[in-house]
Design brief:
Distance between the termini of chain A: 28 Å
Family (chains A, B, C): Belongs to the UPF0047 family.
Pfam family, one (chains A, B, C): YjbQ
Strand content of chain A: 35-45%
CATH class of chain A: Mainly Beta
Number of strands of chain A: 9
CATH topology of chain A: Jelly Rolls
Protein name (chains A, B, C): YjbQ family protein
Number of helices of chain A: 3
InterPro entries (chains A, B, C): UPF0047_YjbQ-like (IPR001602), YjbQ-like_sf (IPR035917)
Largest interface: A-B, 47 and 49 residues
Order of helices and strands of chain A: EEEHEEHHEEEE
Oligomer: homotrimer
CATH superfamily of chain A: YjbQ-like
Shape of chain A: elongated
Strand order of the largest sheet of chain A: 2-9-4-6-7
Helix content of chain A: 10-25%
Radius of gyration of chain A: 18 Å
Number of domains of chain A: 1
Chain lengths: ~160, ~160, ~160
């Protein structure tokens, strides 16, 4: 395995920054939010090395990383999850909030509600094809809140 | 997207705290452990901004975030995972530890063995409906160990 | 729940270290990379308490934690994911990069592209049976890049 340092080890004070981001209501499906996150957090640019932690405060939606280019990837993700976690599953008992509710809870645990993204040289270190995706699993999920926590050392 | 800071950026020393938590044996299923985690870690209250990382040291159980209120959500999660990752899957070869073992390994990778939860103002920033859940996938899993790592800046 | 501190809380400067690791091309399947990661990051040994964050910069492979001993677990993981996310799924529209491409994207979101592993006393705190696994979902995935970010306090 080849390895090369982006930076040698640094012993230093850390920067901590915490922010609540509110995403507008989106239709059910997989939505790219990379540009929105970066625009809301100019503090990313102040970090030499660090981590951005994003936490969605909900149990019927999720955060995931996937392709940022061809929208057909997001369409097929939505289709696969709908076929795999079916709304009419006969053994579901948690049904009083609508047929899309229990599937939304299961999808949320499958995808998770958080991502932690490395920062180096003032930028998120996403791969060329990686985007941050909000997976909205409810038909009418409404606004969604994300807590963004930044931690790192100064440039 | 609306954004407002919980705190402006802070440049400071960090607090590090590491602890091993042992959960008593639980029956197979999804179990809320939020209150146990908070009670075991009074140091959360000392942090202005920070992160709590929980790591389950096992490969046949998992940690996930889901609804903390109606227990039918946890019942349906257990049912869905049992239907989707079946014990009698004919092509499984790793069967000598019991029919619940290989499904437990698969569920563990699907849910993951870790969560990182944001802290602000001395409290975990879980959403209103979010709880920390131990997903026990073995019929007789026994005690489970979690490593809790706290990192943040002082209040 | 029993709890005992590995270390009492420490208020201190933090170490930050960032590195890009390149994994050689692997065949499709689940591959243990624990020893490669540890060998590439001797800085782990300098930390009293900390976290190692690993980020795979790709959307058609993943990182997961699972059993490090019996290789039949990894064989069955690969078989289950192939049966559950089928290459010939008729409703897939993202098919021009090959029949293994869209399933690879879905598996990547199911497993995730990151892990954060606790460090104490200079060592990764993996459980006895836990290993770090690269899940290669493409038939010809080629080299894969991981960004390793270390953060912690000095021993």
């Amino acid at each position: 395995m080849k390895a090369w340092p982006i930076w040698k080890s640094v012993l230093t004070n850390s920067i901590w920054h915490s922010e609540t981001l509110t995403l507008p209501a989106q239709r059910r499906g997989f939505h790219l939010i990379t540009d929105d996150i970066i625009a809301a957090l100019p503090q990313i640019n102040t970090l030499k090395v660090g981590l951005l932690h994003l936490w969605l405060k909900h149990t019927s939606a999720g955060l995931t990383i996937n392709e940022n280019a061809d929208p057909s990837v997001r369409t097929d993700l939505e289709a696969w999850f709908n076929h795999t976690v079916k709304e009419d599953t006969p053994y579901f008992t948690h049904t009083f909030e609508g047929s899309d509710d229990m599937p939304a809870h299961i999808k949320s645990s499958l995808l998770g509600c958080e991502v932690t993204i490395p920062i180096a040289d003032g930028k998120l270190q996403l791969g060329t094809w990686q985007g941050i995706i909000l997976a909205e699993h409810r038909d009418n999920g409404g606004e969604r809140s994300i807590i963004a926590t930044l931690n790192g050392c100064q440039r």
